[in-house]
Design a protein that fits this description.
Distance between the termini of chain B: 30 Å
Number of strands of chain B: 12
Number of helices of chain B: 15
Radius of gyration of chain A: 18 Å
Largest sheet of chain B: 6 strands, mixed, barrel
CATH topology of chain A: Rossmann fold
Largest sheet of chain A: 7 strands, mixed
Number of domains of chain B: 2
Number of domains of chain A: 1
Order of helices and strands of chain B: HHEHEEHEEHEEHEHEHEHHHHEEHHH
Helix content of chain A: 25-40%
Bound molecules: adenosine-5'-diphosphate, magnesium ion
CATH class of chain A: Alpha Beta
Shape of chain B: elongated
Structural class of chain A: alpha/beta
Oligomer: heterodimer
CATH superfamily of chain A: P-loop containing nucleotide triphosphate hydrolases
Largest interface: A-B, 29 and 23 residues
Order of helices and strands of chain A: EEEHEEHEHHHEHEEEE
CATH architecture of chain A: 3-Layer(aba) Sandwich
Number of helices of chain A: 6
Helix content of chain B: 40-55%
Shape of chain A: globular
Structural class of chain B: alpha+beta
Distance between the termini of chain A: 27 Å
Chain lengths: ~240, ~400
């Protein structure tokens, strides 16, 4: 079998944070491969290193050791400007706290990634409409975020994360500020986009109930992958254990 | 690009209260400068016009020789064919009149006491027609058509030191153009208060024909040109220059500003004061807004983190903050210009007066001129001040660690 290039390759990554005279090991020699089109959940209790892992994959943080490869490119070799370019083109972010720009309307928020890509106004308009339709919010296009409900805000954020057709969408605890119903709906929305558009999603959660329809679940504990399971029908089958140094 | 400006624009009005405070600060600075500057401009104009009206005129014409050498005898370097020059200048546009003058000096005596004087001789009717009249403390101005005694005006200082009053007689002693000593009996018709003690102590004025008789010469020292409006000085001077150079006795002209040493001193002093005020306002705006802008930036940490995570170039973040501050400066400047002019108008119609300045007893009117250059200048200044103030916050914003900024609460 010819080894294909994974979309994301986390290769023996460690991330330590200095803390007073001590240090915290947020990720401990972790490895992970994510292929194109996957829908993957990173599960684990608070403090297990989910955010740290997603930040590293999203190139907004750097590992203390180990490599992160996106599309086969070692991100450690890229300059800050190249990293910015990579994020702008290949990655979409959804945040726990929505992080919409408050002075922009829903449509303008969704437009922002296209604006920094330098797309023409006409192109931007079509894509924004498409993206808002795909999250079911075409009717709320001209509302400012403060007039939208939490669920709606996060759907706008999802539209913003997919509007520029990134290779990868990263969502760090996107449901943590939503009630159960909205949370379930959001995961279903993302799963739908994953299946319909073939977009790759990695999201994190500490809520077990949201993982029912997730085909692959990576469990983290204390900065280490303790399980990586693929769903087969309704049964989660454990395929590989964590890489423990 | 327009979306980017829109973002900056909306961000300016995001925190209404804070923006209002900043606008008040910036606008207040601009309005303050306009009021002070406008008052100074009014003062300058008043001083300028009184300097010109006190006899300086708008343009003075001398022979070229006058500035090349010292006179051996009185009127050595004077204008000989002055009637001809005067009548040709008088036909020019904007010219209200041309007044010939003689400057001379000598001794005054009343038989008991004597004193040195610096005299001027004029044609009083022409001077009056141009609006130049001496500031009389008592008595009347000269009258050339009087038959009988030769009339003279003396300074209040002269009158005091020689113990004479209006109606008294004096003898003038001077050296004539040929170098002989000559005397003339005059009668004091008025006392003059120029506002400058040094001048008042030496001041003497007689009519032109009397002086010519005393000095035994038909020349004059210079011709004083009065215009309809001070603003036309440069234009008229430019037109006259070639005309004067071409005369058989070459002439040069001096504009009032070249002769108004006192005016220039006052203006320099007050311009310095104004500049100092401007610098203070500049730094006050700078310091006050750096703080506000830093605060605003701090509050938006997570938002900046989000924008950076999405791949916004860091230069955009710098630009965004600087544009926001510059816009704030612009709005502040507009508010300040409107507010300052309104306040100025209000003050002007209120007819405020200041206590009399030293050396006079007339209360000074408080008026504020609306000077466009001042509006543009002070507006530019605050805009630049805000743009500078935003550099530090803008750079800090662009240097944020993305992951940390996103975790910011
Ligand atoms: N910037 C940081 N400075 C210090 N410690 C950090 C920092 N970020 C994360 N940590 C620590 O790293 C560990 C993993 O954190 P995190 O990745 O945020 O976990 P999770 O997202 O699963 O809750 C925690 O112990 C946390 O305290
Ligand atoms: Mg987390």
């Amino acid at each position: 079998m010819i080894p294909t290039v994974a979309l994301v390759h986390v290769d023996a990554v460690t991330r330590r944070f200095p803390l007073d005279h001590n240090e915290v090991i947020a990720l401990d020699h972790t490895s992970l491969r994510v292929e194109r089109g996957e829908f993957l959940a990173i599960a684990g209790p608070s403090g297990s290193g989910k955010s740290t892992l997603l930040n590293l994959i999203g190139c907004i943080d750097k590992p203390t050791s180990g490599r992160i490869l996106i599309d086969g490119v070692d991100t450690g070799t890229l300059s800050p400007v190249q990293l910015t370019d990579l994020r702008r083109k290949k990655i979409g972010f959804v945040f726990q706290t929505f992080n919409l720009i408050p002075v922009f309307t829903a449509a303008e928020n969704v437009e922002f990634p296209l604006l920094i890509q330098g797309l023409s106004p006409a192109e931007r308009r079509t894509r924004v409409t498409e993206a808002l339709e795909s999250v079911g919010l075409a009717g709320r296009a001209h509302q400012r975020p403060d007039l939208l409900s939490g669920g709606e805000r996060q759907r706008v954020a999802v539209a913003r994360a997919i509007v520029h057709r990134p290779a990868l969408v990263l969502a760090d605890e996107p449901t943590a500020n939503l009630d159960t119903r909205n949370a379930t709906q959001l995961i279903e929305l993302m799963r739908g986009l994953n299946q319909r558009l073939g977009l790759t999603f990695i999201f994190s959660t500490h809520d077990q109930r949201l993982l029912e329809h997730t085909p692959r679940i990576v469990r983290l504990t204390d900065g280490q992958v303790v399980s990586d399971s693929f769903a087969k029908g309704d049964v989660h089958e454990q395929v590989s254990a964590a890489c423990i140094s | 690009m327009s979306k980017f400006l829109l973002l900056a624009f909306r961000n300016v009005f995001r925190n209404r209260r804070r923006t209002l405070m900043t606008l008040l600060m910036v606008g207040g600075g601009v309005a303050g400068l306009l009021l002070v500057g406008g008052f100074f401009a009014f003062m300058f104009r008043g001083l300028r016009e009184s300097t010109i009206r006190n006899g300086l005129g708008h343009i003075q014409i001398f022979t070229a020789e006058h500035f090349q050498r010292d006179e051996v005898h009185v009127l050595d370097t004077g204008i000989s064919d002055w009637q001809h020059v005067a009548s040709s200048v008088r036909t020019g546009k904007h010219v209200r009149g041309v007044a010939p003058r003689i400057e001379f000096y000598g001794m005054l005596s009343n038989g008991v006491k004597s004193s040195v004087f610096m005299g001027s001789a004029v044609q009083p009717e022409i001077e009056r027609s141009m609006g130049f009249s001496p500031r009389l403390a008592s008595g009347n101005d000269l009258n050339s058509s009087s038959n009988g005694e030769v009339e003279a005006l003396v300074g209040t200082g002269v009158a005091r030191s020689m113990n004479v009053k209006v109606g008294d007689g004096l003898t003038i002693l001077s050296v004539t153009a040929d170098g002989a000593l000559n005397g003339l009996d005059v009668q004091i018709v008025g006392l003059v208060n120029t506002g400058f003690k040094d001048l008042d102590d030496r001041y003497l004025r007689i009519t032109l024909p009397s002086a010519q008789r005393l000095l035994q010469s038909d020349r004059v020292t210079n011709l004083v040109v009065g215009l309809d409006n001070t603003d036309n000085t440069d234009a008229v001077a430019a037109e006259l220059a070639p005309q004067l150079r071409g005369l058989s006795q070459p002439m040069v002209e001096k504009k009032w500003i070249e002769l108004a040493a006192y005016y220039k001193q006052v203006r320099t002093l007050f311009s310095g004061i104004f500049l100092f005020l401007g610098v203070i306002v500049f730094f006050m705006v700078l310091m006050a807004t750096v703080n506000t802008l830093l605060m605003a930036m701090f509050e938006r940490t997570r938002e900046i983190g989000t924008m950076l995570a999405m791949g916004t170039p860091r230069t955009w973040i710098v630009a965004l903050f600087m544009v926001e501050a510059t816009l704030t400066g612009l709005f502040g400047a507009v508010a300040g210009v409107i507010g300052g002019n309104l306040l100025g108008m209000l003050l002007n119609v209120s007819g405020l007066h200041l206590p009399p300045p030293p050396g006079t007893d007339v209360p000074m009117a408080f008026r504020v001129l609306h000077v466009p250059a001042l509006m543009i200048g002070s507006s530019l200044m605050v805009v630049v001040s805000l743009a500078l103030a935003s550099i530090l916050p803008a750079i800090r914003a662009s240097r944020l660690q993305i992951a940390e900024a996103l975790a910011h609460v």
